[in-house]
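cache lookup: miss for this entity combination. No prior model stored, computing from scratch. Input as submitted by user K.M.:
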Amino acid sequence: AAGVIQSPRHLIKEKRETATLKCYPIPRHDTVYWYQQGPGQDPQFLISFYEKMQSDKGSIPDRFSAQQFSDYHSELNMSSLELGDSALYFCASSWGGQNQPQHFGDGTRLSIL
Amino acid sequence: DAKTTQPPSMDCAEGRAANLPCNHSTISGNEYVYWYRQIHSQGPQYIIHGLKNNETNEMASLIITEDRKSSTLILPHATLRDTAVYYCIVRTQSSYKYIFGTGTRLKVLA
């Protein structure tokens, strides 16, 4: 079965640079979620989109922005990168309402030098 | 958001049933319980979810107490590949997000 696809899988950036992470949800899924997992930490919710509109917002820094496009894929844009942004970034998708489970991708590992 | 409490770690012998408890005493009537696991640094893997009835799928069984204040995830025949961190999550009807707790680190022993 098709899964959530994230790209790139690994990304190395330097401080103050920008980065764009992409997420392709499972076909027919209309909701996308972004999570950040720092080293040794549990995943933390950043933001979600339902039918291309922001549906919920968590602890996402102002330096980060995200959107969902007409084909339902989503991009997380990160600017003025800091060392503390080094983390795994997971995208998840779901369909048909809030009670449906989220399905996660394998994540993008972002390393800031 | 309903808070969940899980033991930080558990061991289970290979081939035996693994019973992972979760306390969610502040759960509301329309909030579902979801279970995920994370192996190393892979993406969290969906296992099962339920509202009030017990649920079973090819991976596991979910037992929810009648008062819905706690639940147990059962892996009927644990294998070494089941070694992972298991998260119990309760999501409110008003929110799309998951709030991950610290989970239970399950180690399956040969």
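stored under new cache key. Chain A has a mean pLDDT of 95.
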